[in-house]
Design goal:
CATH topology of the largest domain: Rossmann fold
CATH superfamily of the largest domain: NAD(P)-binding Rossmann-like Domain
Oligomer: single chain
Shape: globular
Radius of gyration: 24 Å
Distance between the termini: 46 Å
Number of strands: 18
Number of helices: 17
CATH architecture of the largest domain: 3-Layer(aba) Sandwich
Length: 470
């Protein structure tokens, strides 16, 4: 019988870019085993060392979580679809005459009307991260007349942001993102109060910042901040409008304490550091965050005016390449450490440590070599193997002369191309993928391995500034 296994964008580099895999199987376990036989690198990203599904991946059959269907032994029938979904952070009075004109198209909608517009004016939404997702969400929330909009971000505007972060523009390169966004939003709608927090969201300030608003929009780009946002919203009883993006795919849901599952119910544990590349490493289609960010703004508005059916208990995924939306049912996990029957997370914790991204974490490590040291090695004529683990389309933009291109997803199958008796220096764009490549090489018996600190971007900065960056 025919079973389809759908492979999401973040994992397709390990499936030769295949989006779907067809097999014949009677259980989810058998279907996944067939997948792993054809694409063995996928196994480590889906299953842990004990053969269990990783907490950072959810597996669905026809939209239902297998944890509620019997786990890996869940039975399949002809035509079933198995989907892998990984974890890719008081009244104000009547409206003025100018506000009545500005929001007239809202007022014509019986579902909004004067009452709904007043609710928007009286409400506050805080956006964590004013980047790809936060930009369109902030613009549409401001245009819609949300009375107070909070913006939390500690970053500055970089030229590489402008391909997708539409709240900023070229005039504000190098400026703080919260200042850039504040000016853009107040220019769009002077009646909106924009409250800026030019700081990183942490366990120390999250409750104080998020607690000042009615709804939280998660526009984060790190797992540590995403789990922090989820937990803070749970303790504050604030709805958390979640969104995430990678390459050509996005996800959106609403985690509302007391009404449905939380983020930890869906993804109990974060992926290992470096397992899921960031947008800076893997790229993202510029228009994709516009779609997901607008969906987040839509959900926030529905929550504020009390209309429509929100995405509580539902996860919507969007594939831009196939222009396909799909919906998956989410359920509260009784064993959830945050919102379950016997919670173990009873306060905010160290989320960098939890995600393994702090200095004390368990991230893969290798001896670093700086660009200057690598240049010195090469000038001295030292024999070494320089391996570029980026993708071919990245190497086409810029490369270090003499580097052998072996994309990380193919490294395990191409180890025979390298001499384990000679030193190996691995590099990627910024050092994350190459750190994981060093672990693969060490496990294969290579003994002298160095990771180029900062990747090719550091090499260009320190050694070859004439090379293009990306």
């Amino acid at each position: 019988m025919a079973i389809i296994v759908r492979i999401p964008t973040p994992l397709r580099r390990y499936s030769a870019e295949r989006a779907e895999f067809e097999t014949s199987a009677e259980t989810v376990f058998a279907a996944l085993e067939a997948l792993f036989v054809t694409h063995p690198l996928l196994r480590a990203f889906v299953l842990d060392g004990g053969g269990r599904v990783r907490g950072s991946v959810s597996v669905y059959v026809n939209g239902d979580d297998i944890r509620f269907l019997g786990g890996l032994e869940a039975q399949l029938t002809n035509g079933d679809t198995v989907a892998l979904i990984p974890a890719i952070a008081g009244g104000v009075g009547d409206l003025s005459r100018s506000e009545l004109l500005r929001y007239s198209r809202h007022l014509l909608l019986p579902e909004v009307g004067l009452e709904g517009q007043r609710k928007l004016k009286e409400s506050g939404v805080v956006i964590v991260g004013v980047g790809g997702l936060g930009s369109p969400a902030a613009l549409y929330l401001a245009a819609s007349g949300v009375g107070r909009i909070g913006i939390v971000d500690c970053d500055t505007v970089d030229e590489s942001n402008l391909q997708r972060q539409i709240v900023h523009d070229t005039r504000w390169l190098g400026r703080s993102k919260v200042e850039s966004a504040r000016d853009r939003l107040t220019a769009l709608n002077p009646d909106v109060e924009v409250v800026t927090f030019e700081e990183k969201l942490t366990s120390d300030n999250a409750l104080a910042i998020l607690g000042r608003f009615d709804v939280v929009v998660d526009g984060t780009d790190s797992f540590a901040t995403r789990y922090l946002t989820n937990d803070a919203c749970f303790f504050l009883k604030r709805p958390n409008v979640y969104g995430s993006i990678f390459r050509f795919e996005g996800q959106v849901s609403v985690f509302w304490p007391g009404k449905g599952p939380c983020y930890r119910c869906v993804y109990p544990t974060p992926p290992e550091p470096g397992l899921v590349p960031s947008c800076a490493e893997g790229g993202v289609l510029g228009v994709l965050p516009g779609v997901i960010g607008c969906l987040q703004a839509t959900e926030a508005i529905k929550i504020l005016i009390g209309r429509g059916k929100t995405l509580v208990g539902r996860l919507v995924t969007y594939d831009a390449l196939d222009l396909r939306f799909e919906e998956y049912r989410l359920r509260a996990d009784p064993a959830c450490p945050l919102c379950g029957s016997n919670p173990t997370v009873v306060s905010l914790v160290d989320y960098e440590l939890f995600c393994g991204t702090s200095r004390g974490g368990n991230e893969p490590t290798a001896d670093d070599i700086t660009p200057a040291e690598l240049l010195s090695w090469r000038n001295d004529g030292r024999t070494l193997q320089l391996v570029d683990v980026r993708e071919a389309h990245e190497a086409a933009i810029c490369s270090i002369p003499g580097a052998r291109l072996i994309p990380f997803g193919t490294l395990g199958a191409r180890l025979q191309e390298l001499d384990p008796g000679l030193p190996v220096v691995v590099h990627c764009k910024s050092g994350t993928r190459s750190a994981r490549a060093a672990v693969v090489l060490k496990a294969a018996g290579f003994t002298e391995i160095r990771n180029l600190k900062g990747g090719i971007l550091a090499w260009i900065r320190d050694v070859e500034p004439a090379l293009p960056t990306y």
